[in-house]
Amino acid sequence: MRIPVPRRSRRTAGVVASLASAALAVVGLQLPTAAPASAAPSSRPDVVRQCADAKPGEFSCFALRRTDVPARAGVQPLATTPDGFGATDLQSAYALPPDGGAGQTVAIVDAYDDPTAEADLAVYRQQYGLPECTTANGCFSKVSQRGGSDLPDPDPDWAGEISLDLDMVSAAAPKAHILLVEADSAYFDDLGAAVDQAVVLGAKYVSNSYGTGYDSTPGSGEDPSEATSMDPYYNHPGVAVVASSGDDGYGVSYPAVSPYVTAVGGTALTRDTGSSRGWSESVWNNAYGGPGSGCSLYEPKPAFQTDTACGKRAEADVAAVADPVTGVAVYQTYGNDGWAVYGGTSASSPLIAGVYAAAGPPGAGTYPNAYPYAKPGALNDVTEGDNGSCDPDALCTAGPGWDGPTGLGTPNGLTAFTSGPHGVFTGTVTDHATGAPIAGATVKAGDHSATTGADGTYTLDVPPGSYDLTAAAYGYATGSATAVDLADGATVTESFALDAVPTRTVSGRVNDGSGHGWPLYATITADGVPGGPVFTDPVTGAYTLTLPQNADYTLHVTANYPGYQAVSKTVQVAAADQTLNVVVPVDSSSTEAPGYAVNLAGATEPFTSTTDPPTGWSVVNADGTSGGWAFDDPGSRGNRTGGSGGFAIIDSDDIGQSLHQDTSLLSPSYDLTGQSAPILGFDTDYKEFSNSTATVDVSADGGTTWSNVWKKTTTSVSGPAHVEIPLTDYAGKSDVRLRFHYTGTWAYWWQLDNVFVGKRTYDPVPGGLVVGTVTDANTKAGVNGATVTSTDRPADHTTTTATPDDPNEPDGFYWTFSHLTGKHPVSAAASHYTAASATADIPPDGTVRRDLSLKAGRLKVTPAAIDKTVAWGKSTTQNVTVKNTGTAPATLTLGETPGGVVVAKAGAPLNLVKGDYSPLSLAAHGTKAGATSRAAAAAEPAAGDAWQPVPDLPVSTGDNAVASYQGTVYSAFGYTGLADTSDLYAYSADSGAWKKLASAADTREAPAHGIINGKFYASGGWGANGNPDAKLEIYDIATNTWSTGASTPKPYAGAGTAVLNGKLYSVGGCTADACGTTDVTAYDPATNAWSTAASYPEDVAWESCGAISGKLYCAGGTIDAGTLTHGYVYDPAADSWSPIADQPTDAWGAAYTSANGLLLVKGGAINGGAALTNQTWAYQPDDNTWTALPNATASLYRGGGATGFYAVGGLAGQTPAKTAEVLPGYDQVDTADVSWLTESTDTVTLAPGASATVTVTLDASAPDISQPGTYTAALGLGSDTPYPLPPVSVSLTVKPPATWGKITGTVSAGGAPLSGATVQINTWATHYTLKTAKDGTYALWLDVRNNPLQLIIAKDGFQPTTTTIRIVKAATTTADFTLLKD
């Protein structure tokens, strides 16, 4: 839910938003919140995105809402007509009839519920004199994605989208019926199911004002599987399925790019009294966005598209108004106070759906997105504007005819949207020799084309006429059929049997082309050639391709070394084999090409002054500007650009509320005479806001005219970032000036440093390449993660990697640039292997291969299990044999783990709670104006009996620090939904209740924490000022007091944390604004000092960590760039991390602990942070595997875990929870001794081929064996080898003495087992006191000479009962009891 607030500081806004959310939660309501109304519209529009950015697997709506327009409630008098274009305006602009749509049903598909949709629609229609459309008169209906009344949860953000859609359909087709289908969520499958449901319910027009997130990168908004996994939802012949193209400018979004959908772009619509139409349009493109457009990477080109700009599906098809500055009037009260002005292509899609409805029913079996292509002259051709830069220009720049941003144009009446005469070609394309279907063949009829499916079939819907048909497929000769007549309404079958053509070999070498000339390891693909790529030989650069003859192919060569350009070559394959050598140059803008050094010649401005612009530089502010470019860091941001020292900044956020900036930083003149390829480079940090723009402009005429070379609006460039821009157009100019221009109104900031103008060269340095493979001497498999180093120049080193795509190169591959040539040793090292070395004869400007093999010990332990039975008080032994089958010495370490077997009960069903889940501080990053977030409501708890409930926390808390000590669970700190807390609570199973203890001095969210020797340590975590708190606070459990220790040098929040070898570890974590670091620190209470440990192998935060057998295991996590599945183990003896098996999911923010020799992970956010889970996993270090444990009851994240396995607190979306539960049986801490189990030695060191025997003694006379029965444990096997060893399970069955018998039974009350009841057994000699288990049972063996036994059964709140029992030798006597309530 968006909760706008008056903008003070952003931290204040977040706290107010959190307070508001919490207040609503307390009273059990979810209420929409009104945007603040201004006294009058501001001079500049202020626009917010209505929906949050799309997460992986989700769509987002493409609605934009003006916040500078005051909201007014109810039908307005004519004197105060709502702002924005109304229904009559839109009908005028697009020549639409005022009574269109009669007899038709238009479906609107959106996510979540708008509870006031029908009431709001009534106000809109009354305002513009449209006929009523209500449930009562049968015009309006609202259903769930299942077609029923089980509507999803309401959401005020998507409610705005729904109101926009309903109003636009009403404007375009006033007499159409409207069907609103509300999906459960914004997930692909939910919205797709809603589309299918709309069609099932009879809609012939379906509007979809949503899509995937995207940018200008090809394929960024698509997925390779979309054609099979998603297109079926939108493939409905005879139905006009319409979708918005997006709001982020040039780039492709799904589902608009589906070939079955009418993709709708966006325009800026203005009145134009000087034109006959009375209106004019251009491509929408301003600070608030622009329509999506472009070329699909995956979808085939539909038959009706004949443009040459794109070989596959191109978008858009048509367009309508979308610019929020020239936006449309919408009435919305759930999430707003009434009338608002909206834009975005979310306005365009329902308008076009309504136009289709006004035009009449689609032809049966036809695809209505083809209709405008048959009558392009019947549209308003938009010829001005662009939505970005691209190649070819038609994909992003308007012009006559089809273009990407607006397609064929905007509606000019209904003609272009009616079904004209048409017929269908259909058939099958097969292999002539075998008859097998050919998938992916292209069938053309004139300018129309279609692609065959997996079964070889195709369908072409085209206008009537006589056609020459062709069928072409890779590896086959083209088939044809001439002068095939097609009548209106006819279906003609034309099949093709194609002949395979001979193949020829294209081979050659790929070499460096910028000075070294060495062979390159490269990937080669060919356009139109199916299958995987071809790889060159890393040593020779040689490659071979087999291609069908008599065709031209474009080869794309990409070096597998960084810093090289991609090269494309066209080859004509005739009747003979041929050779094609390729030279690949380095990318002059890169700094990563091996063997090359960057040299700069020109001026650099480091902005060292903190008071004034540098000499020759100036700041120019437009009228009405408050503040401007500064050099003294007025907001104390620090240099975020990647530079150091002083910098230039325009800090709109610091300047303050409602204040506007239009400020330029102007450079001195640069003389580029004699330079052929000058560049501009600068370090930067740009934090976007909805109304901010940062541009770099260049002038060659003294500042009279300026040309833009770099522009950012709503896409941040997070520092440290370096930007380089070619100034080729200004080469040879003598007076070149730069302008760094920023506009914004209480937005964020833009920082600049180290502005360079001049020449950049990439020059070779002496040396050669060394490549090879590092393998395991025992298994012969590649060793990934090994370090290969030049012995004579250790700075030349690299790490081996996997090569999953290259069948000719095994894993363990490495390459490195060597500054040394000639004969020099190289060495390879990896954890638990013996280092290896070999000499490489490195040729200057050449490549040499040097493979290395690493030796390691490898242990085999037998038997795999020990199972012994002994008499009472007796002992037995078992010999365990250890053999080293490896190639190096090996040491085995034995340890003991009690309770080798945990019997699990049934878990709850998998329970995913979809939503948008943030890793940042909730107190400091609550919802704020201009941003969007939506907290998903928690799902109902899932049923299951493995996890047992624990009494709720006294206060709902997330980000709490949880640990256990001597059977007591502690929960400290966290976020309560109202504020951060410093409170501490303790839960004891004996008392069955939580108790409040002394509070700490500081509040914190998500600190590093742990209990060491009876003291609870907490450090880091987000403090009261929003930054991580460096103070270390220490709670003494014995005295119930807090004290402080040494502050951490590197405070973080959301770090992975655990206690290992008496030290508190903090791994990774978050700062105030970002998540992810490799920092690892450890606090030693013995010295009251922090130390730095080896860096984590990758940036991480919110991972799960636990200490097991003297090592630290961590897995999962998240960073700003995405979520993680990787796991690693830290060996403090070697101060190094090594990889372990990946976590089964990308869970982060889970409740975690270590127990029973396992790393335990419960819940957390998964699927890229888009869902909460109740899954529970255990990592077993001994065999490097993950095992599923029973699912928990609650799906939460950012709670705490403790040995037990307790899970306490957490968050459901942004709402803290009180929930606490336990998975019994996981209560064995890392270091434990099994009293009845001993070994003759705890370490064994063996040479290769050697064996040794360890004697294991199982002693039933140990004090812990007080009852007959079966006792289990495990021998943990650790080693200094790279191969995990499974534990040896140990089972000891102790038989009772001959004179003993067993008394057992169940205590119940009200027909249910009664846990925790006291069973006192009195004998003539002594007495025993038992407690019933969770299932109400009790049991005891004892000598029959204790007979008779008096049993007293009691529990508070129940009437006690008593009886006398006699037990029998070697037999079980059962006595059940039922207690009555007092």
Automatic annotation (TrEMBL):
SUPFAM superfamilies per the UniProt record, alphabetical: Carboxypeptidase regulatory domain-like, Galactose oxidase, central domain, Kelch motif, Subtilisin-like
Biological processes annotated in GO: proteolysis
Domain Peptidase S53: 79-423
InterPro entries associated with the record: CarboxyPept-like_regulatory, Gal_Oxase/kelch_b-propeller, Kelch-typ_b-propeller, Kelch_1, Peptidase_S8/S53_dom_sf, Peptidase_S8_Ser-AS, Sedolisin_dom, TAT_signal
Leader peptide range in chain numbering: 1-39
An annotated Gene Ontology molecular function: serine-type endopeptidase activity
Protein name per Swiss-Prot or TrEMBL: Kelch motif-containing protein
Source organism: Actinacidiphila cocklensis
